[in-house]
Specification:
ten-stranded antiparallel sheet, Trigger factor, 10 strands, Lipocalin, DUF6314
Amino acid sequence: MSRQLADFEGTWRIMRQITHADAPDAQYEGTAHWTPDEAGLLYQENGILTVTGHPPMQTERRYLWRAPLDVYFEDGRFFHTVPPGGGETRHWCAPDDYRVTYRFAAWPRFETVWRVQGPAKDYTMVSRYAPA
């Protein structure tokens, strides 16, 4: 079934694993809030990032989600479009290539898998979302 913008509204728990090719791995636990704004949904994520060998740190990020399923950085620059039925998409941020797969088969739980590669980046990030 295809997802639409309203499907994401609300609060979600996030569990994330970040696996680096040449750096310590990291884990993340937090919440994501998709709340209505004048043009769609505001995404705000808050949580604790723990990098192997380092003390845990508080993190936060924001994105703008617009119909149909377009994602923008907080400053308004386009990021990528979420495939409504799940699947792959990408974002090129020279010189780095960001590829993501959205998996909606177990909705309302879902997963994103980012594969990021560039001259100074080489990691996979798996995020699992579940309604809070």
